[in-house]
Design a protein that fits this description.
The complex is a heterodimer of chains A (135) and B (239). By secondary structure, chain A is mainly α. Helix content of chain A is 81%, strand content 0%. Chain B has a 6-stranded mixed β-sheet, with helices on both faces. A 4-stranded antiparallel β-sheet of chain B has the order 2-1-4-5, with helices on one face. In chain B, helix 4 crosses helix 6. The chains are: A mainly alpha (135), B alpha/beta (239). Chains A and B meet through helix 1, helix 2, helix 3 and helix 4 of A and strand 5, helix 6 and helix 7 of B.
């Protein structure tokens, strides 16, 4: 009990020292949307630069349009990177959960087939009862 | 089961928790506290939101409103692995073991915590001698009782300060459930705070210091288990 009290105090200290941040899920969603916005905005800036350069014969303005187009391209690349990062993370989380569930279901089916029982019957097997010897 | 509560701090506290799945509200303002060295049982019918509440407490599901306080600190949005590393352990419904790994490999997965594999194995096999015999067997081929033993062994391997148990009895024979709850009682006596959700009200009432009745996403009553008989009947049977 004394050991556990020390453990609880340690737990409280560690929780207090945690760098607590705002909800991660909300941040992921925001960054995903920011990625979309940057991609769209970058393309828009590129189109704007195209019309800017075509609307003038002044070489200085055309060079400015080149710079604006490059900024648009940069924004679109950053947006694409953000979008890919956070959409792939979402997909992989789902995929991992799905894989774990399928492995569990497959193992249950194999065990049930080997033992000639339904999955629920197998899980209710009281074979482990005598082995529960809590000290 | 544990000593009477004096002014114990709450290791876990939920304040006005609301949560939803795809816009459908499941929790409608849950308030619940787990004081230090106390076993709190949450009972209620299917669909009351008990599992969702545990998932919110463990950081696995975001709360749409309200505060989750661990050891007095707001942890909304904290990553579940960060909480788990520090000693908040959830043993989920369905056990959450790796079926395609052996018993030993499953225990090995817990060596990210503050203990070595040798220590984890020693304590696991001491508590559950059957696991020692099965240490090279695939976890998915164990019986239901043995899988739950492995899940408990993995949870306890993390040296938890706060243990959260979701439907320990699911799919198990009553005799195994009774033995598992004897172990839970012993863990509680060692001073670990426990929040348990269970459908077998009778068994868990013997272990709990406090019980809460949850209906339709709200905690409708909290108190000593003996005082909640009527609320429980209403929760399960209606009326």
């Amino acid at each position: 009990m004394a050991d556990q009290h020390g453990r609880v105090e340690e737990f409280k200290e560690e929780i207090a020292e945690m760098g607590l941040r705002d909800p991660a899920a909300a941040r992921d969603r925001t960054l995903l949307r920011l990625g979309w916005a940057l991609m769209g905005g970058g393309v828009g800036v590129g189109i704007f630069a195209y019309f800017l350069s075509h609307g003038t014969t002044n070489p200085l303005t055309q060079r400015d349009a080149l710079v604006v187009a490059l900024i648009g391209l940069t924004l679109a690349v950053i947006g694409a990177a953000l979008f890919t990062r956070y959409s792939v993370a979402q997909f992989l989380r789902f995929w991992l959960a799905r894989l774990s569930w399928e492995q569990q279901a497959q193992t249950d089916r194999v065990v049930a087939a080997l033992s000639g029982q339904g999955p629920e019957q197998h899980r209710e097997d009281p074979a482990g009862a005598e082995a529960l010897t809590p000290h | 089961m544990t000593a009477a509560n004096g002014h114990r701090t709450n290791l876990l506290e939920l304040r006005g928790i609301r949560a939803a799945y795809d816009g459908i509200n499941v929790l409608h303002g849950v308030d619940l506290a787990v004081p230090e060295a106390t076993v709190v049982a949450v009972l209620g019918p299917n669909g009351a939101g008990k599992t969702t509440m545990l998932r919110v407490a463990a950081g696995l599901h975001p709360a749409s409103a309200g505060d989750v306080l661990v050891a007095g600190h707001r942890v909304n949005g904290c990553r579940p692995d960060e909480l788990a590393r520090r000693g908040l352990c959830l043993i989920p419904e369905g056990r959450g073991i790796f079926p395609n790994l052996t018993v030993r490999e499953n225990l090995w997965m817990m060596s990210h915590s503050r203990r070595s594999l040798a220590e984890i194995e020693e304590s696991a096999y001491e508590r559950f001698s059957r696991l020692r015999q099965r240490h090279n067997q695939m976890a998915g081929t164990l019986s239901g009782g043995e899988q739950q033993m492995l899940a408990m062994a993995r949870g306890l391997a993390t040296d938890p300060a706060l243990l959260i148990l979701d439907e320990l009895s699911m799919g198990l024979a009553p005799i195994i459930v009774e033995d598992l709850y004897q172990l839970v009682a012993q863990v509680a006596q060692s001073g670990v705070s426990i929040l348990v959700v269970e459908q077998f009200a009778r068994i868990v009432m013997d272990v709990a210091d406090q019980a809460a009745v949850m209906v339709q996403g709200r905690v409708v009553q909290v108190g000593p288990p003996a005082e909640l008989e009527d609320s429980l009947s209403q929760a399960y049977l209606g009326g």
